[in-house]
């Protein structure tokens, strides 16, 4: 059978794709109609959740039909603007629980907002940039000092995730986003700080040269946070942001001051997804400034021994670390053995078995 053919009852891929498109062409208009006209908030939330699931798993395949991206974006925008039928206060039951309705309203907006980075990931940053420009005023309006903590955390989180999804196309939004993220990084709320610091990191990563002039002020903010921060997730996000700064523009970072602080802040405790970035940074540093890594090898081996072989790091990171450790053992055998000695026997044995396998 050819590439689209099949035997033993397996459907050709083109047939499955066609069937999927037919299904989506029926389902999505129903979803969008429900979002606009349905009075029951819970049902609308369920539809938003289902829509997000389709976007997450099917990505561009769900948006092939002309006008579909526009239609979904409009539906999300209408929810954010509270223009849907279920958000119309005139449709509320007289005896309804006001507190519960307010909670549902907030959840509706969160579910709708979750669709923004999913759309960006589905169609790519260049295509999505004009749509993000339309959403941005609505999101930034929720980051003002007068807004609730939940609103600020939600909006900054969506902004950060969308920047990550849009990648290089985010650069045009740096002037509008950076002041908000820098302000959020100083917020009194842990989650707002955490989301803001993550946002700074991904904006650094994808904003590239447009962010270089901001490095001194960003390092000042991150240094201030790390010196007094009690919340582990915020600290983990600082580690991720600093790692992205090093990976993106190492010459803009005073490595001799920053790298030791990064190593001392490891291992990550809560936001383990940032381990990918952090260990990429350490591998990068070994390739580009090996003396820095060797200088902090005892602390580094202690960290690696705690996370390697666990579900805290992905397989790609594990392989990269093993390669680096083998290289260090080959190039700096004395320093490696010396750094290994203070480790508990179990951890030292684990590292030895990894690099000799």
Automatic annotation (TrEMBL):
One of its GO terms (cellular component) is cytoplasm. Keywords: Cytoplasm, Protein transport, Repeat, Transport. It comes from the Eukaryota. It holds the Pfam family HEAT. GO terms for biological process: protein import into nucleus. It is found in: Cytoplasm. InterPro entries: ARM-like, ARM-type_fold, HEAT, Importin_beta. This is Importin-4-like protein.
